[in-house]
Write a structure and sequence with these properties.
By secondary structure, the protein is mostly helical. It is built from 10 helices and 2 strands, in the order ααααααβααβαα. It has a domain of 199 residues: Helix Hairpins.
C-alpha cells in the first residue's frame, strides 16, 4: 500500500511559531552542554554557527534534510530486507516440512513392503517344509520316479501342485523384495534431502532473525536521531519541530503513495497478463467445437454505435502468506478485526465504517500479519508499500497486527478520509 502521513491543520500558526521559537532558543544552552552527537550529525553549536549567514543556514538545512532522508531510506530498505528474509525462510521451512512428510510417507511404505516381503518368505518356508514332507521340491525327482513306478497319480498331483505354488510364491517374494529395496533407497534419498533442507532452513532462519534485528535497530536509530535533526531543522527554518515533522511526513507520504500506486497497477496488470496467457493456453489445448448454426447478427441501425464488449477489471493480486516470521508474528484475523473495531472512534469514525474496513482488508490480506504481495512486495494487513512504512507506527511492525492496524487506519484517514472511501476506491481500481 502506501505510506502513512497524517497531516493536520494547525490553528494559530503565528502564535505557535512565536512560542516554539522562544522555547527553542531557551533550550539551546542545555542542548549544547549535552554529549557530542554521533559522527556525521550536526551539533547545536553547528546549527548556531550556520544561522550566522543565509548561505550557511541554507547549506545546513540541505545537510539535515539529507540526513533525515537517509535515515528513512535505510529504515525502509532494512524493513524490506526483513520481509524478504522472512519470506525466504518461510519457503525453506515449507520445503523442509514437505521433505519431512515425504520421509514419513516413504517410511510407512517401506514398512509395508518389508512386511509383504517377510510374509512371502514365511509362506515359502512353510511350503518348503510341506514339500519336503511330501517329497516335493527338494526331493521332487525321487518322489516323481517313485510315483511313476508305483503308478501313483495322486503323488504326481501333489508334487505338481506344491511346486507350482512354490514357484508363484518365489516370484511374488522376489517382486516384493524389489519394491522394498526401491522404497528403502527412496527413503534414504528423502532423508538426505531432509537433512539438507533442514540446514538450509536453519541458515534462512538465522538470516531472517538478523534482518529483523537490523530493521528494529535502524528504526530505533531513526527515531533517536530524527527528533534532534527535526528540531534543528525547525530552528534553522524558523518553524517548529511539529510542523517540520508533519511536513516531512506529508511529503514522504505523497511520494511513496505515487510509487505504491504505480506498483499496485503494475501488479494488477501482471496478474491480468498471466491470467490471459493461461486462458489462451487452455483454449489452444481445447479441441475446437463446431460453430453454432445461428443466423448472422444484424448490423446496427445507422447512426447507432455497436455496443462495446465489457472490459474486465484486473483481478486483485492474491497475497502470499508467510507462515511465520522469526520473532513471533501473530496471524490472528479475529484478534486484528476486534482491535481495529475498537480503534475506529480514535480516528473519528463510527461502527458503520467497520464493514467497509473488513471488506477492504479481507480483499487485501485476509487480515494476516505476514501477507506479502508476490508482485509489488506490499506487506501486512494494510499492505503497506514499502513495508518499512509501518515503522512510523511502531518498531514491532513485522510481527504486530496492532501496529499494522494503527498505521493502516492513519493511512486511510489521510488518503480517503474513511474506510468506506478507501473501499469505494478499491472497488473501482482494485487497489487503494
Amino acid at each position: 500500500m502506501c505510506p502513512f502521513a497524517q497531516k493536520k491543520r494547525l490553528p494559530g500558526l503565528a502564535a505557535a511559531l512565536a512560542v516554539a521559537l522562544a522555547a527553542s532558543f531557551s533550550m539551546l544552552p542545555a542542548q549544547a552542554s549535552e554529549e557530542a552527537p554521533p559522527a556525521g550529525y550536526p551539533s547545536w553549536q553547528d546549527v548556531e554557527r550556520a544561522r550566522q549567514s543565509q548561505a550557511g543556514t541554507a547549506a545546513e538545512v540541505v545537510r539535515i534534510g539529507d540526513l533525515l532522508g537517509n535515515l528513512q531510506s535505510q529504515a525502509e530498505a532494512l524493513g524490506k530486507a526483513a520481509v524478504t528474509s522472512a519470506a525466504e525462510y518461510a519457503v525453506a521451512e515449507s520445503a523442509l516440512q514437505g521433505a519431512m512428510a515425504r520421509v514419513d510417507a516413504l517410511a510407512a511404505q517401506v514398512a509395508g513392503a518389508r512386511e509383504d516381503s517377510g510374509r512371502h518368505k514365511r509362506e515359502i518356508g512353510a511350503l518348503a517344509a510341506q514339500s519336503y514332507k511330501t517329497g516335493g521340491t527338494n526331493m521332487g525327482f525321487f518322489v516323481a520316479l517313485d510315483a511313476v513306478e508305483t503308478n501313483s497319480i495322486h503323488g504326481l498331483n501333489i508334487v505338481r501342485i506344491v511346486s507350482d505354488k512354490t514357484a508363484a510364491l518365489v516370484h511374488r517374494s522376489a517382486e516384493a523384495e524389489k519394491v522394498y529395496s526401491a522404497l528403502a533407497e527412496q527413503e534414504r534419498a528423502a532423508r538426505t534431502e531432509r537433512e539438507h533442507l533442514a540446514g538450509e532452513a536453519e541458515a534462512k532462519l538465522a538470516s531472517a532473525q538478523a534482518a529483523r534485528q537490523a530493521a528494529s535497530q535502524q528504526v530505533a536509530q531513526q527515531e533517536k536521531h530524527s527528533q534532534v535533526l527535526t528540531a534543528q531543522l525547525a530552528s534553522l527554518k524558523g518553524t517548529t519541530a511539529a510542523i517540520e515533522g508533519e511536513f516531512r511526513q506529508g511529503q514522504a507520504a505523497l511520494a511513496a503513495y505515487e510509487v505504491s500506486q504505480a506498483a499496485k497497477r503494475a501488479a494488477a496488470e501482471e496478474q491480468t497478463r498471466r491470467q490471459a496467457e493461461a486462458a489462451a493456453k487452455a483454449a489452444a489445448q481445447t479441441p475446437a467445437s463446431p460453430a453454432p448454426q445461428n443466423p448472422a447478427p444484424q448490423d446496427p441501425a445507422p447512426g447507432v454505435p455497436a455496443p462495446a464488449p465489457p472490459v474486465a477489471s484486473p483481478a486483485p493480486v492474491p497475497p502470499v502468506v508467510v507462515p511465520s516470521v522469526p520473532g513471533g508474528a501473530v496471524n490472528d484475523p479475529a484478534g486484528a478485526k476486534n482491535y481495529a473495531s475498537g480503534r475506529l472512534s480514535a480516528y473519528g469514525w463510527g461502527q458503520d465504517q467497520f464493514q467497509c474496513l473488513v471488506q477492504l482488508w479481507t480483499k487485501e490480506s485476509n487480515w494476516l500479519t505476514t501477507a506479502t504481495n508476490p508482485y509489488s512486495g506490499a506487506y501486512g494487513i494494510a499492505q503497506a508499500l514499502p513495508a518499512g512504512k509501518y515503522a512510523s507506527a511502531g518498531s514491532d511492525w513485522l510481527t504486530s497486527y496492532r501496529t499494522q492496524v494503527d498505521w493502516g487506519l492513519g493511512y486511510i484517514l489521510d488518503r480517503y478520509r474513511s474506510p468506506c472511501g478507501a473501499w469505494d476506491h478499491s472497488v473501482l481500481k482494485n487497489w487503494y
